[in-house]
Every structure is written in C-alpha cells, then in structure tokens.
Write a structure and sequence with these properties.
The chain is 28% helix and 15% strand. The strands form 11 sheets. It has an 8-stranded mixed beta sheet with strand order 7-6-26-25-24-8-9-23. A 6-stranded mixed β-barrel has the order 35-39-36-38-37-40. The radius of gyration is 30 Å and the shape is globular. Residues 1-13 have low confidence and may be disordered.
Length: 1242
C-alpha cells in the first residue's frame, strides 16, 4: 500500500478542515494503523486482517428471485440480504438437468443482471408518490371549492387555460411529493370523470411482455379491463412481432428453447446478435460448434456474434431478403428441380401448401395468380358441403383428380369436420406440380421490386396448368419456381441464364448487386444449409431477430427466411427451423394468465388495441405523411388501395371488423346502450342504424375531434417515452402538449386522407392524465402527471417464463418494499378501491357496448371467403356485425364493485371455462382447489369466490388454470382436441396428468413445464422444446387456411401489394417519400453551414443495457462510454470532420439528437447506430439545431404502417392480441450527421 502523504492532509485537497478532522477520528475506534492520507487502514495479526473481506460477503439470508426486464434470459438469482439490506446477487445453480448428452442451462445470467441490486438504493429510485406541482395545486384548489374529487378533476380539464398550463409543464421538472391517498384519489377521479363524460374506451393502459412478471402485468391489465378501458398491444408496437409468423404458420412466435440449438447441425444467426441480446444462452451456440455444427453470421457490421461464426456474410442493412431469396433460388434449383430429395418432397407435400391449387386470372392481357381453388369451385356435393369455401384442393398423382384433403380450415369448424381436422392423406399422393396435363403452359406476370428506389415491375414466366371444373389452375409449387426464377424445360417466359445472371431475380449474382455479399458464398451457404437438412432430416436452423425484423418490409424478409426452413423440412424438427427471438414473449402458463389479466372471469370480451395504429392517429403522425397506401402496390392494373392514405385504410380496417379501434365510436359507448334501451331496440341494431344514417361515426375517422381523444393513459413496467415511442417528438407535441423538436411539414392538401376528417389546426395536449408506476426515474416519469413508486423484482411475489428455456421462475421479496413503494398488484388494488368508492356515486351500474374485431382461432376466420374485400361504407355489402363489421357485445359493468372483482376469481370461469387457441378448458377442479388454497371471499358481490387479494393468490391462480403447469388440464385439453382432429394427442401429457405446479414449487427451484395444447411443441419424455413438433409428428394441422404452412397468401390486399408469394422488397426510399437527401449525400447542412452527411440510422440493442434499463446503472455506465452515443464508420466520420468522442448532432424531419461519436471500423460506411435505448436522463445537452434539449434515439424515428398488416377476418389473417397487427418499425429511417460545437450547455 502507498504511504505517500496525501495532499488533502495539508489542507489543499478536496476535503476541508472539518472533513479531515472527522476522518481522523477513525483512529480512536480501531486498533489498525491509519495512513497519512487517511484513506487506508493497516492491520497486522491473524484472521483479523481479512475481517473486512469476510464482513463484506457475510449475509443473513439468501432469497430466490429473477429479473423482469424483457431480456428473454429469465435467469434464477440468489439475492443476498444482510441487516435488512440487499447487498448483492449471484446466479442460481439448481436448474433441472438437460441430460447426459448436452450442456446444462446453468449458470444463467449476465453482467447487467448481476448489477440489478444497485437500483434498490440508487439515486434514480422512485421512493414516494409524486404529482406535477402545478396540477396538484389546481386539484387542491378545485377540490376545496367543489368538495368532490371527480368534479374537481372535471373543473381542471374542462378549463382550456388551466389544462394547457399543466400539460405544458410536462418534462420540465416540478414533480412534488404527495401521499398515496391524494395521488390515487387524483388518478381515480380522472378515470371516473373520463368514463362518465367520454367513455371507458378513452382510458388506456400500456404494460408490455406479461411473461417477464405476469402478476405485475395482470394487476394493471385486470383493472383496465374491468372498467372497460383499452389495453394497448406491445409485441407489434415494439416491431418485434413477425407478421410472417401468422401469415405462414397461423401461430405467433412459437420458437425453440435455446437448448435446441445444440441439436442443430447448421446454424445461421441472421439479424440476431446472440452474445449481446441472448447472453445467458450464447453458450449453446459456442458449445455446439465443438459438436461439429457450422455457424454462419449475417450482419451488416462486425458484431459481437460474428467473431464466433465460421463465416460472415456482411449484407447491407435491410437487404437480407434479397440474400434469402437467392438462397431459395439455389435450393429450389438444386434440391427440387435438378434432383428431387425424397425427404424434402415428402415433407412439403404433407406439411405445406405447395401442392395446393391456385386459380389463374387474366387481367389486361396478363395472367396473374388468384385465389386458392376450393371445394366450392368443384361443383356437385363438394360445392355444397359445409364450409366449402374454406376447403382447399390439390391433385392426386394416383388418380390425376382434384381432391379435398383433410385438415383445412373448413374441417376445423362445423359438424362435418369432426375427426377430419388432421393431416392424414390416406391413399392420396399430392402432386407438387401441374405438369403432365393436356393444357399448354401459361405465362404468368410475377411482381418484382428491384428497380431504382424500389420501383415495382413485372417479370413474365411460364407455369404448367390444368383445367379443373372450368378453372385454369396451377400449384403453389409451380408459382414458387416461377417467382424464384427456377427454369424447367418447355416453359415460356424470361428466365435467368444461370447463377451469374445479375439482371434476373433471384440469382446469387443478382443479390450481390444489392447486398454486397459474394454470389459464390451465397450459393454455397444455401447448398450447405439444404445438404445438412437432407442428411440430418431437418436439423438446419436460422436464429433471427430484431436486426431483420424491425424493417418496414420485415414480413417479406421473414417469409424469405421461412422458405429456406420450410422447403428443407426443418420445421417441427428438433434442431431445425426458425428461432425468432426479440422479447420475452412466451407466457407458458398462458391460459391462466389470460383469465386473470383480461378479467375474463368477470366480463368478456376485453378491449385489446393495436398500439401502433393507436399512436399513429393520436400522436398525429398521420398528418405528416406525403404518400398514399398505393405507393407500395405492385405494377399491375386495378387495385383497391388507389387514392387511399394509411389513415384511410386504418379506418377501413376498423369498420370492416378486421382490426380493433378504440376509442371506437364518436359517442360514449355507455350512452349508446342507454339510447338503444330507451328506444326499446337491441344495441347492435341501434348502432348499425346510426352508422348507416351517418349520425354515428367511428372515432378513428376523426381522431382530432375532442370527443375522440385518448384521455387517460397508465404506464407500468414500461418506458414508453424513453424507449418505445417511435416518433417521440410527435408524442411530446400532440399527445402531451409540451416542448418538442418536430421539424416535418404537414401533408399537402392533395395527399390528405379522404375518409378522415382533417382539422386545419392540429390539436396539442390531447392526454389529460399520464400516470406511471416505476421504480426508477425515466423519460416517461419525467413527463408524467402522477408517478407512483413501484417495488423492484427483489421486493415482490410474481412469475416469470421465457421462450429460451422451459422453466417457470418465481419472484420473491428479499426485503419488503422500502420507503413508500408498493408492488404493482397492491398499487392497482389501492387505485381500484378509491375508484370504486367514487364510481359508486358517479357511475353505478352501466351497460357498455364493445366492438370486437373478427378473431383468430374462432369461426370469425371464415367471415370473408377467399379474402375478398367488401366495404359496407362503400356500398359493397351491408354492415353485418361479426361478418362485415365488428361484433357488438354488450357488457354490464358495476363500477362500484371493481375493487371487489379485482380481489376475487369471478363466476364466468365456472360457466364458460377458459379458451386458448380454440381449445376450451373446464376448470371445476381448479376453482375448488383455489378456493381452498387462497381462501374464499366472505360477503359482498364475490362471496364464496376464490380470493385474489394477494399477489401470491394471483400466482396460484395462473399456475392452476394453465395446462403447462397443471397436468390435468393439459390432458383434458388434448382430449378435447382429439375429438376434432381424430388423432392421438393426450398421451403427450398423460405422464404428468397428476402433476400440479404450485407457487411453492417455483420458490424451491426452477420447474419445467408440461406439454400442453397451449403451445405447438412437446417436452414429453424430457426432450427439448421445438415448435410444431406436434403438428409434424401427430399430424395436427396448423391454424391456417389449408391447415399447412403457407408459402402463398391469396387475400386481395396481399395480391395487390405483390406479396402473395415470398418477394424481395428493399428499405423504404425516404428521398421519394419525404424528400430527405439520398444516403451518402454531403453538404452544408448545419444551422451555421456545418458539413453534414446523410446516413442510414439504425437503433439496435445495446450491450450495456436491456432496452432503457441498466444504461443508467453506475456499473453499466462505467463499462460503456456513459451518456448518449452514436456509432459511426471511420469513412463517414472523415467526410465531416468528426473524431472519436466528439459531440455531434443528428437531424432529420422528425427531430434532433445530440450525442458523442464513437468512430469505429466495425461500422459499415453509410450507416450509424444509436443503441436502443439510451434514456434522456444522462448527459443530454441543448441542441444547436432546435434550442431544445437533445432528444433520444426515437426522436429521429416515426411510425410507418404497412397496409397488409391491417388485414383481418380471413383464415390465419385474423386479429388476436399481440398475434397480428401493424408493427412500429423504425429501421428504414435516415438522418443527417454533423459535428457540432464542442462547448455544450445543459
């Protein structure tokens, strides 16, 4: 140790004399020698010298818990407590073994998780309730004057001047401490007034990813759903939802656990930086290499995962689809045409739609692919059979006749399909191709989008055809070969001359011009991928993620990926198929969670809203579009999207019942039911008549009318304004009414919506109350009106599961919630209690009409035969609820009893059971169990019902009511499914029929789940989970039109967009759409003429955070640069004189960001990274461009909605919450980067 004299000892250091004197007193309380600099102690002797070390690691108890941060890790941790203080955490090592032939799951964790306990006592901890000071003063004054909290709130928000004043204060400090009683009273009063004046669907709740802490999510969701509010989706909003999954599988993000990576013989990491975003699971990828697995990385930059790969394909950002399409070209040519691989042909014939027949339609001299041929088209008995329009047709190679095989959607519903919804083919041998018929081949026009700036074009290629009952048809397989440019002898049209043809899509040389990937490498990797699948029977896998899924055209990218796995027989095989990982999506005890979170035990249906469309309208981003929906269509005649804007088709989708839309009508839904009752008419008839007469409209047709604003928003377990709000500055301006940096111009008059009312002046400050519950200060809390202090993950009981492993984890309190913090479950119980007290007086019992979209996994999927679009408002059909418009369901709401219902399991469980993915579970035994386990409510509305008063009660209910955690229900569900499918399934769960996982079980150790019909894979016998193994091995159909995995989609809008088949679509051209300079442009772009360069702007996940969390943690700040940074290539930096660590500004029409530069050779020229998500709380100076405080990563983004994501009411293209909906994509954006003054102010 140093014994040098410290400068402070002579009085010229950092400490003053008083401080030095206090430090010197230490010598009176120790026998150790104090150094001259007063900073070290010197001990001599035996074990006494290491007492400090031993004391540092001493503890009183160790508690099991985990982290709920949507990292997908779901790691079990030991939390150490000493003297009632959390001291540190370490990884648990008691995971059940995976067996003797593979690595174990443990120890699981990452440096971020190991730093979490810092938050418990951190400077950023929210310790008390806070209310915006100016609002609190207004409320106290109004309440004193009026004597009623609800009237007081109404008085404030009804006064334009006062309302504008407190909204303008958002984000500018001024939060003051309040009591729980006063804060929750304000919240309750705002809810009651909003419901009374505007309607319950003007109240919204946002909390993402239930799997990361189910009870915490369910607490708020249950409250919002009981009052009739709108719960906002998250998966599509985050742009994590792969729309291709429902398009292809009829299922959403059912993926393999990471232990199944070990089973793969060939692994491609495509847009997924595994060591960074799947840190606890990365070892499976690295260890499998020692087993002989080959690993390929596809990434635009030299990412962390690249160094673990055997080969790197550096595709340019957003061009991954072109690379995948070229690989599909190679596989189709070499493994299907040049030679046929029996495993592949047998697989695609049974499990995909390739052999199914498609009609060919002639338009303007060209043939185009049309609708699937169905039994309805065959005539005779087939045409009149039940659900004939949903029974698809193929050719039998034995008889050469058209046949209707089992397993299509037409067999899933109705009496005729009982026992036939399966993939049994009997004596039928499907024909992949229509070759061999008497009819000559026809030339078909196929779309292409590889022109300059993504311009559409057509390529003419021939397909063999047959004539079936007067219809010219070909197979999906024949169309696929034409689409991919794989020639066969005798077919007319324009075809590539070989792999070296760079002009015709989709050859390896063609993709090289677009992606920059060597053509030879692309062909070789495709060949290796397929050869491995051939030899191993499907053990080739693609790990895919946000890098490829956050683009506007992510669905086409993913369908090109899935073509590779589906052609080669990899889905439903351990070690094969797609492995899409973006968020912690898999709520394994799904059925139980849905009942509690959606409050389905008391009222049905809930209001579940697509968040992307919600904010696109309510943050007024639609007012800044300069292009129409028809900008995206293929180069073909006709079209239903012509002349429509994105806002127009959102409104059209809503009124046709495709997608939900809340607020729904421009009238309070409680008043609508009152009007109907007063007129003595059914509510549905009243609403339809009002709509037809024009007296009633959908709220989304006039989102800027005050009666249609969202009024109250509650956020918990989320950081909307600091992490996920694409178009952040538009939120600040229009939703919150505070300072912003929007620079965009509004839509020109000729480009404005036709079906949406346009107000000359856009409103600001639409939202009356922003409530946030959080344990740390974030960019959302600083803009909130009320902030409630939340318990952390080490301070509550909860449940946690993930896609990445098969275990259920528990949260457990290592300490009681400190200061005035409360668990989310307790917080919403508190809010609901005060709400009920006020609502009993102001609302009472009311009837609410809920507009419900046509829903997936129900008969609603047959509402629109053949995917033909008919809009009742255009006079194309009559408005019929549940067919051509939303279902209209009346729900009675006892607002004074909301708290009582929150705390008890309701009676609908007894009568209606619980339905998941079309399977209804009967819960009699489970309700009896919960009544004894949790206790029964005594007295009141819920007398005798099982209690849900405590968070542990909710945990028990979720586990008891889910097949994955209750073997009795899993077996029951499979038995129910057996009746429809006619195939054996129940044995998959029979080994665990008597097993019931309780919360106590999860507290003891990680507990593996049970195979259940809630999910498509099997863990039976201890195997690793892989999706669709039940479909493949037990011949259970997929939830699609054909019952098979789809390459082809025949909906009208899919055809119009040119996306009926997999296709390459490049990133959006921001120069054409918004007038932004081209990427690579340099020039004087700063306010003082500073040199700037246009670059592509991407926001990938960070190595030093999980979303916005951990980046403000002292440990992570120490490991990273700290504060906001943007990564830029050395070439781009040199163009504009930027050096490493310089301050720079990024500016586009959406906003401004100020950050430090990280100049790195790992970055490709023309692209910058600003990691998601660096919150706006640390080191963010004033911007030169705007004069406002620099923004966050989403200040440069905005929402862009793709029309095909709004399709509903047809087969697998039906809405379900977080299953299908428009994505909040943001990867297509561009920005100008320039060096700014290095003198910054805050």
């Amino acid at each position: 140790m140093s014994t040098e004299k410290w400068a402070g000892a002579s009085g010229d250091g950092l400490d003053d004399a008083v401080t030095q004197a206090l430090v010197r007193t230490r010598r009176f309380f120790t026998k150790a020698e104090v150094s001259q600099d007063l900073r070290t102690l010197h001990r001599s002797g035996g074990r006494e010298s290491d007492a400090f070390y031993r004391d540092r690691w001493a503890h009183d108890k160790v508690v099991r818990s985990t982290h709920g941060v949507n990292c997908t890790g779901s790691c079990s941790w030991k939390v150490y407590v000493k003297d009632g203080i959390i001291t540190w955490e370490s990884q648990q090592t008691d995971y059940p073994s995976t067996g003797p032939d593979r690595p174990e799951y443990e120890p699981r964790g990452c440096p971020r998780g190991a730093a979490f306990s810092w938050y418990t006592y951190s400077p950023t901890r929210v310790r008390y309730p806070y209310v915006r000071g100016v609002l609190l003063e207004m409320y106290r004054e109004a309440k004193t004057r009026l004597g009623d909290p609800v009237l007081a709130w109404a008085d404030i928000v009804g006064d334009p001047e006062r309302s504008k004043r407190y909204k303008a204060a958002r984000g500018k400090g001024g939060l003051v401490r309040a009591t729980w009683e006063e804060a929750t009273e304000i919240v309750a009063a705002a809810h009651v007034h909003t419901i009374k004046k505007w309607g319950p669907d003007r109240v919204a709740g946002f909390s993402p990813i239930p799997a990361m802490s189910m009870v915490s999510h369910a607490g708020g969701a249950r409250f919002v759903n009981l009052i009739g509010g709108s719960m906002l989706s998250f998966y599509d909003w985050y742009a994590d939802l792969p729309v291709a999954s429902p398009q292809v599988f009829g299922d959403q993000t059912d993926v393999p656990e990471s232990g199944d990576w070990w089973d793969a013989g060939y692994l491609i990491m495509w847009g997924s930086n595994v060591p960074v975003t799947r840190t606890p699971d990365a070892h499976w990828m690295t260890e499998a290499r020692y087993r002989g697995q080959k690993v390929i990385a596809v990434a635009p930059d030299y990412a962390d995962n690249v160094k673990f790969a055997d080969e790197w394909l550096p595709a340019k950002p957003g061009t991954d689809g072109a690379l995948a399409m070229s690989m599909g070209h190679v596989i189709l040519k070499e493994f299907f045409v040049d030679r046929q691989v029996p495993y592949f042909t047998q697989y695609v014939s049974r499990y995909t739609d390739l052999p199914f027949l498609v009609r060919l339609d002639e338009r303007d001299g060209h043939y185009f692919s049309g609708k699937f041929l169905t039994a309805q088209d065959l005539g005779g008995e087939q045409a009149t059979s039940e659900n004939a329009a949903f029974k698809t047709v193929l050719l039998d190679s034995v008889t050469q006749q058209a046949v209707v095989p089992n397993g299509s959607m037409g067999h899933r519903y109705g009496d005729d399909g009982v026992g036939k919804w399966n993939l049994e083919l009997g004596d039928v041998v499907p024909m992949l191709s229509a070759e061999g018929g008497a009819e000559p081949a026809l030339e078909v026009a196929m779309p292409r989008f590889d022109g300059p700036g993504g311009e559409p074009g057509l390529v003419i290629r021939g397909v063999p055809v047959r004539l079936v009952n007067g219809h010219l048809v070909t197979t999906v397989y024949d169309l696929m070969l034409a689409q991919y440019g794989v020639a066969r002898d005798g077919l007319p049209g324009t075809w590539p001359t070989g792999y070296d043809d760079a002009d015709e899509p989709y050859t390896p040389s063609w993709q090289e011009k677009i992606t920059g990937v060597d053509a030879g490498a692309a062909a070789r990797i495709a060949r290796e991928f397929a050869a491995n699948a051939e030899e191993s029977h499907g053990r080739s896998m693609i790990i895919m993620g946000a890098g490829t899924n956050h683009w506007f055209h992510s669905d086409t990218i993913y369908r090109a990926f899935l073509t590779l796995t589906n052609l080669t027989g990899c889905q439903g095989v351990n070690g094969g198929g797609w492995a899409h990982y973006v968020g912690q999506e898999k709520v394994r005890p799904l059925t139980g969670y849905n009942q509690i979170g959606n409050a389905l035990d008391w009222s049905r249906p809930p209001r579940n809203m697509i968040q992307t469309a919600y904010w696109y309208l309510h943050s007024n981003q639609f007012r800044y579009d300069h292009f129409g929906a028809d900008t995206l269509v293929q180069a073909a005649p006709g079209g239903q999207l012509a002349g429509k804007t994105t806002a127009d088709i959102i409104a059209q989708s809503a009124r046709m019942g495709w997608m939900p839309s809340y607020p729904t009508f421009d009238r309070n839904p409680l008043d609508l039911t009152d009007e109907a009752e007063a007129a003595g008419r059914p509510v549905a008839d009243h609403v339809v008549d009002e709509l037809k007469s024009g007296r009633l409209s959908f709220a989304c047709e006039d989102p800027d009318a005050e009666e249609n604003y969202p009024r109250v928003l509650t956020i918990w377990r989320a950081n909307l304004l600091g992490s996920s709000a694409k178009g952040n500055e538009y939120f600040l301006k229009h939703l919150l009414g505070t300072d912003h940096s929007v620079r965009a111009t509004e839509t020109r008059e000729k480009d404005r919506p036709k079906d949406i009312v346009w107000h000359d002046e856009a409103p600001t400050g639409k939202l009356d109350l922003l409530l946030t519950l959080d344990f740390r200060m974030t960019s959302t809390t600083i803009f909130s009106d009320v902030v409630l202090p939340a318990a952390t993950w080490y301070e509550k009981h909860d449940l946690n599961t993930t896609d990445m492993h098969p275990f259920v984890h528990s949260f457990n309190p290592a300490i009681s919630p400190p200061w005035q913090t409360r668990t989310d479950w307790d917080s919403f119980m508190t809010i609901s209690k005060r709400f009920s007290e006020l609502a009993a007086q102001h609302l009472g019992v009311r009837k609410d009409v809920v507009a419900v979209p046509l829903t997936h996994d129900t008969v609603d999927a047959m509402a629109n035969p053949h995917g033909v679009v008919k809009d009742w408002k255009a006079g194309e059909c009559e408005p019929v609820p549940g067919v051509t418009m939303p279902k209209l369901v009346v729900v009675e709401r006892d607002y004074g009893a909301v708290h009582a219902k929150m705390a008890a399991l309701g009676p609908l469980m007894d009568t209606l059971g619980a339905t998941t993915k079309g399977v209804t579970f009967q819960l009699d035994k489970e309700i009896s169990f919960l009544r004894h386990k949790n206790g029964a409510v005594r007295g009141g509305l819920a007398d005798g019902r099982p209690s849900l008063a405590r968070d542990v009660d909710a945990c028990e209910a979720i586990l008891a009511m889910s097949g994955t955690t209750n073997g009795h229900l899993a077996t029951q569900g499979f038995q129910t499914l057996e009746k429809r499918t006619g195939v054996k399934l129940a044995d998959l769960a029979a080994e665990h029929e008597g097993k019931r996982i309780t919360f106590a079980d999860t507290q003891g150790a990680p507990v593996p789940v049970i195979t259940s019909p809630e999910w498509s894979g099997s863990e039976a016998g201890g195997r690793r989970y892989s999706p669709f193994t039940i479909n493949v091995e037990r011949l259970k159909p997929w939830h699609t039109l054909t019952g098979r995995m789809h390459f082809y989609l025949d909906h009208d809008w899919m055809s119009e967009l040119g996306e009926g088949l997999p296709v390459f679509r490049p990133p959006l051209n921001m120069s054409a759409l918004f007038g932004e300079p081209e990427v690579g442009t340099t020039g004087e772009m700063g306010p003082g003429g500073e040199l700037g360069v246009m670059v592509r702007y991407l926001t990938p996940h960070s190595k030093w955070s999980i979303h916005s969390e951990y980046q403000d943690n002292l440990f992570m700040l120490s490991l990273s640069r700290g504060g906001q940074t943007i990564w830029i290539s050395a070439q781009d930096a040199a163009k504009v004189g930027i050096h490493d660590n310089d301050w720079m500004e990024a500016v586009n029409r959406n906003g401004v960001v100020v950050a430090r530069a990280i100049v790195s050779h790992r970055m490709p020229e023309g692209t910058v990274y600003m990691h998601h998500a660096q919150d706006r709380l640390i080191d963010v100076p004033i911007a030169e461009t705007s004069g406002q405080r620099g923004g966050i990563h989403n200040s440069l983004t905005r929402l862009m909605i793709k029309p095909s994501h709004l399709i509903g009411g047809y087969a697998q293209l039906c809405f379900a919450f977080n299953y299908l909906g428009p994505t909040g994509n943001q990867r297509d954006e561009v920005t100008m980067i320039r060096r700014r003054s290095q003198e910054v102010t805050y």
